[in-house]
Amino acid sequence: MEIIISNSSDKPIYEQICLQIKSMIMEGVLSAGEALPSMRALAKDLHISVITVQRAYEDLTRDGFIETVSGKGSFVASQNMDFIREEKLRTAEELLQKAAEIGRAHGIGYEQMAGILRMFYEE
After folding, report:
1. What is the pLDDT of residue 81?
2. High-pLDDT (> 70) share of the chain, %
3. CA 104, CA 90: separation in Å to the nearest integer?
4. 1 pLDDT band (50/70/90 cuts)?
5. Cβ distance 18 to 9 under 8 Å?
6. Phi, psi at residue 72, to the nearest 5°?
7. Predicted local distance difference test score (pLDDT) of residue 107
8. Which of 117, 76, 85 minimizes the C-alpha distance to 100?
9. HSE (CB half, 13 Å, CA atoms) of 36?
10. Beta strand pairing status for 73-76 and 66-69?
């Protein structure tokens, strides 16, 4: 599992870890039941604090992406398809919100924006 940390990112390191692991799970790179590196091992590989990795794993557990078994480690959770769909929908909403803000700020009308979306959607 390859995680890349950017010190120039505006996102905290734990959030960068979360986003990359979520992405790997949702894209099928990591499968349900697959073991994740231990917190210590990942911290050592990334040259960061174990507390930072712990925060990332706690957030992933809270969001339902991983399960931690005491004494055994952390594993990719069995994903509910509705949960994955909801996560993808949330991402699409964020991107569409940005597109709407750009359109409004630059005088691009709703019909033109909807036409652009339709064109991309039907490709």
Report:
1. 61
2. 97
3. 21
4. confident
5. no
6. -115, -30
7. 95
8. 117
9. 31
10. antiparallel
Main-chain phi, psi angles of 68, to 5 degrees: -110, 125
Q: How far apart are CA 14 and CA 17, in angstroms?
A: 5
Q: Chain-wide mean pLDDT for the chain? A: 92
Take residue 71 and report the two structure tokens written for it: 């004494």
Rg of the chain on CA atoms, in Å: 18
* Token pair listed for 122: 């039907």
Q: What six digits make up the tokens of 118?
A: 């339709």
Find tokens 């509705």 and name the residue: 82
DSSP 8-class letter at 1: -
Within 8 A by CB and 6+ apart from 39, the residues are 50, 53, 54, 57, 74
Please report, as a single letter, which amino acid is at residue 89.
Answer: L
**Amino acid at the residue 67:** E
Q: What residues pair up with 75 in beta bridges, in sequence order?
A: 35, 67
CA separation for the pair 73, 12 (Å, rounded): 24
Tens digits of per-residue pLDDT, 44-101? 999 999 999 999 999 999 988 999 998 999 999 986 666 777 888 988 999 999 999 9
